[in-house]
Design brief:
1091 residues; elongated; mainly alpha
């Protein structure tokens, strides 16, 4: 028994199968048969387990598993022998009660001509010598005569099947089976079905007349059993066995009593009617399951299933006549499983549902829970997809009536119902649903959420891949267009829905039909113009409504905010241009700009959204339109109130309009023999004057800094290397002329404070005008006129004037800064030491603690190279071998503000390779030109020294030794530095730097000195930085010579020629200038107070 059980639970491999059958299955079958013949098989629990569990599973595998096809003849014969033993067991077990249901179900499988085993052995011949003589007229099975076979199945005798059927007769199986029907105890539907289904799968191979004689009375007995079922029987879970019995009876009648099929079907349907009419959930559920099964078989595409089922017209007529659908909906539709069965029923009967039925179904929602209502609507939607147009109109009528009276929650569910119907129904019905949703969306006093809900489901009906709906989409796009052109009421919803319709299901491979639709809307219906006009209308309405106090949350039409309105307009416009492959013409660009940027009714939010649109959609304007828009609109932005978005827009269009300049500039460098005017023309950019004005006027320092970097890129960094190398004088000269003309104009138009003016103040500003006029003589009149014209368009007060002065000086400073690489041997800062202080020197790795140190005395104007040379001299090694590190995480300053540490907040942070290096701990040789204060080497700083390449000659110091004090010899350091850099302060290259070119014009020094009297710290800082960057004023040197010790011993001819020029206005003979006059001139003690 255990061995056989292990085989059942194992694999179906053929190896060892015959041995296992003979030794395990065969022995068990024989033993069970002996117990059955004795009537005690059910008294042995092992035998019961074998008959009810192991035998059904074993023979299901032996008869129906696919490996059977691969077994050889010997194994097939062995299996047949096991089948014969099974027949003996079942025949013996039927001799007493109760009915062996499991064994009979197995017998039905064994007698199935369509099992894998029987199909495999269908050509086996029938051996008449075995049973025909013994059974005589009791014989039940016989292979069909050859005349009934076609040419293709002449050998399909199913001999083994007929042999085992007749063996069952021989072993008194039929006699014992019929005796079970006479059991004193009432048989159950399960037992009836087991007894009657024995030969159901082999009717073609038995004598029908003999079967009719044997089982006629038992068929009647089973029918009477079904007819006499009580209400309590329908509530039991075993009701399914009744339906199985009916199915068995129908199959038997179709083969034996064809005229009784209708009776069986009617009995089947009457039983379902009784069950579905009950209020019991189990009864309703079981009836619906069976009805769903009948419908599935009746509508199947498999002929065998359709043949074995009730005809669909019979089912349909029965459902309608007995109001089965209404009875089903009265059940518990809160249960999902129940609803699924009802859905099958509704979908089946949907085309034949009348108006009264629809009304009855619709009214069933009243008094139900929300879950029940949801399920009911789901059922209605499923059925409505199969409605004809008339039925759908009935349903829509009920929906619209409910819409007027129901709560918001139910209204939302009604919209969902319509949307679901529209997605699943045919096109004609979808047209009607779309119309209803469109009308509902235009209802008065509709909330925003409800409007979005309606339009959402309206949109979902236009699903991807439904090409017949393209015409519908076009129709509703045109309806949105009509609402848009009316300029009132449904403006924003129309724009939003139009965008959604065009955008819905669009992909990167935009369909040609959608392109045609956009072309139709834009060219034939002028959608873009209508959009811009609508935008202006919405903007004006909200402005008037709020009296100019517009916010992003202000409601435009009681539903959509002002922010949503603007964005919807711009999103649709952008989509049309991009997906339609269209350019926005200049006229429309100007109209849109005027509406969003320059209109008197524009809010800050409109302004920023508009600028953002022109930035992101710049590619949607062709080059000519970009240039024209820049010149007529973008460049006219007010620089004083310019926002970061406005500057980004200006910069983008500036670059687009001047995109051809770079190639022209590169071509220009190939021809060096050109005039200065031609060169200057090549450096002119469209809108560059406006860029200067932005830097000078804008209130945001970050924008000013960014614009300054951009300006310097144009004038220097983005110029070709060949230009910077071969024509630096022209390059710097052009820039300085631009600076001078703006500086002269600022001086001429100087704005004094608004407070009461004193004579001193009036005199000061008059002198500024004089300086400006003198500076004007150095540049052309046409250039000055242009500068004045671009500047006078902006009203300037005293504060703005001071800002312009400070920003202009900053531009000069930064230009010198990037051109001269932050260091120049002629810079004034190199002529004085600066602040003296001490730093610590530790010989060793960075971070080394408890080490001896030395002290170096330095000055803030010393460079890193000077410190490196000094340390090289002290340690007696080359300065190149001195490796300096510092514990510093602060970024190094890029300014020349010389007030200890850098405190200049207005310096433009320029990016360069050295700046990236300066944040590291190692001070590389690329930083040699940096001043110590720029490297944050401040008083008390500790630096770490490593000597590379060779040993040094200093003895090792103990940790507790006194530090050695080292002092830089600045005069020698300057000489060494100059020699090391191989630079001559008087060579041609140095003279062509911008700081030296500025120094050639003594008026620049005078203007800086004069501006220093303004009481403005930022301007003072800028002047100080410029004076440090430029060479020292040679006139100051001469005047200091007059009061120096040397003055008494030098001759007049040794004085610089420039001294004579400086004094010609006061005295023709410079020998008459005495020391007191020189002191007064240099320090101007009488006029030293700030203005």
């Amino acid at each position: 028994m255990n061995t056989f059980s292990e085989w059942i639970n194992g694999s179906n491999r053929s190896t060892g199968l015959e041995e296992k059958c003979e030794e395990a299955l065969g022995q068990c079958l024989l033993s069970a048969t002996k117990l059955a013949l004795a009537g005690i098989a059910d008294q042995d629990k092992n035998c019961v387990k074998f008959m009810e569990d192991l035998v059904p599973e074993a023979f299901r595998k032996l008869q129906c598993s696919h490996p059977v096809n691969n077994w050889g003849f010997e194994i097939q014969s062995g299996v047949f022998e096991m089948v014969e033993l099974l027949i003996d067991l079942i025949a013996a077990r039927l001799s007493y009660s109760p009915v062996p249901v499991k064994l009979l179900e197995t017998l039905s499988i064994v007698f199935d001509y369509d099992s894998v085993f029987q199909r495999k052995n269908k050509t086996k011949p029938y051996d008449r010598s075995l049973y025909d003589k013994q059974l005589d007229d009791r014989i039940l099975a016989n292979p069909p005569s050859t005349s009934t076979f076609s040419v293709y199945n002449r050998n399909e005798t199913y001999g083994w099947l007929c042999q085992i059927i007749n063996r069952f007769i021989l072993k008194d199986g039929i006699i014992n089976l019929k005796a079970q029907f006479q059991n004193k105890k009432q048989l159950t539907a399960l037992e009836y079905n087991a007894l009657l289904s024995t030969f159901i799968n082999c009717m073609d191979y038995i004598f029908i007349d003999k079967y009719r004689q044997l089982f006629s009375e038992h068929i009647e007995q089973a029918l009477d059993y079904i007819k006499n079922l009580k209400e309590q029987d329908f509530k039991a879970k075993s009701t399914n066995s009744v339906f199985e019995l009916l199915s068995t009876l129908r199959k038997i009648c179709s083969a034996v009593w064809p005229n009784r099929i209708e009776q069986i079907e009617q009995l089947h349907l009457n039983l379902l009617l009784k069950m579905i009419a009950l209020s019991n959930f189990n009864a309703k559920m079981n009836s619906l399951k069976e009805l769903a099964k009948i419908i599935e078989n009746a509508t199947s595409n498999i002929p065998s299933m359709t043949k074995a089922s009730i005809r669909r017209d019979v089912i349909s007529e029965w459902i309608i006549e007995n109001s089965i659908l209404s009875k089903a909906l009265e059940g518990n539709i809160d249960q999902n499983q129940y609803v699924e069965k009802v859905r099958t029923l509704m979908d089946f009967i949907a085309p034949k549902i009348s108006k009264q039925d629809i009304e009855t179904i619709w009214k069933m929602q009243h008094g139900r829970s929300l879950v029940a209502v949801d399920h009911l609507f789901t059922l209605i939607a499923s059925a409505a997809a199969k409605f004809n147009l008339q039925q759908l109109n009935y349903l829509i009528e009920f929906i619209c009536n409910s819409w007027k009276t129901e709560t918001i929650l139910i209204q939302e569910k009604l919209i969902e119902l319509l949307g679901t119907i529209g997605r699943e129904c045919q096109k004609d019905s979808a047209v009607r649903v779309l119309e209803i949703l469109w009308d509902l969306a235009h209802s008065d006093r509709l909330s925003r959420s409800m409007l979005d809900h309606i339009l959402h489901y309206h949109l979902r009906i236009f699903s991807e891949g439904r090409s017949p709906y393209d015409a519908l989409k076009r129709d509703y796009c045109l309806k949105c267009m009509s609402d848009l052109q009316r300029k009132q009421g449904w403006l924003v919803p129309a724009i939003k829905h139009l965008y959604d319709l065009l955008h819905h299901d669009s992909t990167n491979t935009f369909k040609r039909t959608d392109e045609d639709l956009i072309s139709l809307l834009v060219h034939k219906h002028d959608l873009i113009s209508a959009l811009i006009q609508s935008l202006s209308t919405c903007q004006l309405n909200v402005w008037n409504k709020t009296h100019g106090h517009v916010t992003i949350d202000t409601l435009v039409d009681g539903r959509f905010t002002h922010e949503e309105s603007i964005k919807n307009h711009l999103d649709l416009l952008s989509f049309l241009l991009k997906k339609g492959n269209l350019y926005l013409i200049l006229k429309r660009s100007e109209e849109l700009w005027d509406t969003l940027i320059t209109s008197e009714h524009v809010s800050l939010f409109d302004h920023e959204l508009g600028l953002n649109w022109f930035i992101t959609c710049s590619e949607d304007l062709n080059r000519e339109s970009q240039i024209a828009l820049f010149e007529k609109r973008v460049s006219k932005l007010n620089p004083i109130h310019l926002t970061s978005k406005g500057y980004a827009c200006f910069k983008l269009y500036f670059e687009r309009c001047n995109s051809e300049r770079s190639s022209q500039s590169r071509n220009f460098t190939c021809h060096t023999n050109v005039s200065t005017s031609a060169y200057n023309e090549m450096l002119e950019y469209r809108g560059v004057d406006e860029l200067w004005n932005i830097i000078l006027c804008v209130g945001d320092d970050e924008i000013a800094n960014d614009a300054t970097r951009f300006l310097l890129d144009l004038y220097y960094l983005k110029q070709p290397n060949r230009t910077r190398r071969l024509t630096p004088q022209l390059l710097h000269g052009h820039f300085l002329k631009e600076v001078y003309k703006r500086l002269s104009y600022l001086l001429i138009t100087a704005v004094p404070p608004s407070t009461s003016l004193t004579k001193e103040i009036e005199s000061f500003y008059k002198s500024l005008k004089t300086y400006g006029e003198q500076l004007t003589t150095t540049i052309t009149t046409t250039t000055t006129t242009t500068a004045c014209h671009t500047s006078t368009s902006i009203e300037t007060n005293h504060t703005l004037w001071l800002q312009k002065i400070e920003r202009l000086l900053l531009i000069i400073e930064e230009y010198i800064h990037i051109v001269e690489n932050e260091y120049s041997p002629t810079a004034h800062i190199t002529s004085f030491y600066g602040l003296e202080y001490q730093i610590k020197i530790i010989l060793g790795e960075i971070g080394k603690t408890n080490s001896s140190y030395d002290i170096v005395t330095v000055h803030s104007n010393d460079t890193l190279q000077m410190l490196r040379i000094c340390l090289g001299q002290f340690y007696k090694v080359s300065s190149h071998d001195i490796h300096i590190s510092i514990q510093n995480t602060r970024p190094l300053t890029q300014s020349y503000d010389h007030v200890g540490t850098n405190n200049n907040n207005n310096t433009v942070p320029l990016s360069s390779s050295s700046n990236n290096q300066s944040n590291s701990n190692v001070l590389s040789s690329s930083l040699n030109s940096k001043y110590l204060y720029q490297l944050h080497i401040t008083p008390g700083t500790t630096i770490y020294i490593k000597i590379l390449g060779s040993t040094y000659n200093q003895p090792i110091k103990p940790n507790n030794s006194e530090p050695i004090r080292i002092k830089l010899n600045n005069s020698s350091m300057l000489t060494l530095t100059s020699n090391n850099n191989n630079m001559n302060t008087n060579d041609d290259i140095t003279r062509l730097t911008p700081s030296n070119m500025m120094a050639d014009n003594s008026k620049i020094y005078d203007i800086l000195y004069k501006l220093s009297y303004l009481n403005n710290k930022n301007i003072h800082k800028r002047i100080r930085n410029l004076l440090n960057l430029m060479p020292s004023d040679i006139r100051i040197h001469d005047y200091l010579d007059l009061i120096s010790i040397r003055a008494a011993n030098i001759c007049t001819t040794e004085r610089r020629q420039s001294t004579e020029n400086a004094n010609n206005n006061n005295n023709n003979n410079n020998n008459q200038i005495n020391s007191r006059q020189a002191i007064d001139y240099v320090f101007d003690i009488k006029n030293s107070s700030l203005i």
